Amino acid sequence: MTRLLVLAMLGLKPMTGYDIKVMLELSDAERWGGVLIGSIYNALKKLEKDGYIEVASIESTGHRQKAIYQITEKGKAHEQELIIEALEKSSVAYPTTLYSGVSFAFKLPNPRAIEALATQQKILEHEEKAILAGFEAKRIAMQGELPALTQLAFENMLEIVKVQWKFVNQAIEIMKKDKNNSLK
């Protein structure tokens, strides 16, 4: 995914590695893109080695030099391949850890299981706030002109968090009602 994000950024305009890093941080790409922002520098090296990007110019600031990269024609073709791959790849991800915990929560005293799920609710609330902040940052960075598919992606992330929160809340309600389904 990192390669796709780097190529996509360079498809917008030539940039330094730092510029790409800042843009991805600003749009909260670690959350929605599942990439480590620091990995872009390795991706830049590999993409350049493979001929997908090239140094367009070198910028000097004081004693430092920064390479400004641009995407090549070969890189544009590879970017399209990566987009197709990303669109075709299964994106269904179940919260398997949570499902395992809920499945065996009956082995805990109900108050302890409820307490753990309440922690999960707080995590989900934090996630929702982070998504909304990332959405707002992206909207500002794009000067209010978010592409419809980008907006759709953010809305979908919010829906997933809401569904997850509903699941956790229902599990808590079941545990509160079912006093016999716990170890004492």
Provide a quick synopsis of the model.
This protein is mainly alpha-helical and 184 residues long. It is built from eight helices and two strands; from the N terminus they run ααααββαααα. A hairpin with a 2-residue loop joins β1 and β2 (64-71).
Describe the 3D structure.
- There is one protein chain.
- This protein is mainly alpha-helical and 184 residues long.
- The chain is built from 8 helices and 2 strands; from the N terminus they run ααααββαααα.
- It has helices at 2-12, 17-26, 29-33, 40-49, 73-88, 96-103, 110-141, 148-177; strands at residues 53-61, 64-71.
- A two-stranded antiparallel ribbon has the order 1-2.
- The longest helix has 32 residues, at 110-141.
What is the strand and helix layout of this fold?
Blueprint: H1 2-12, H2 17-26, H3 29-33, H4 40-49, E1 53-61, E2 64-71, H5 73-88, H6 96-103, H7 110-141, H8 148-177
Antiparallel strand pairs: 1-2
Helix pairs in contact: 1-4, 1-5, 7-8
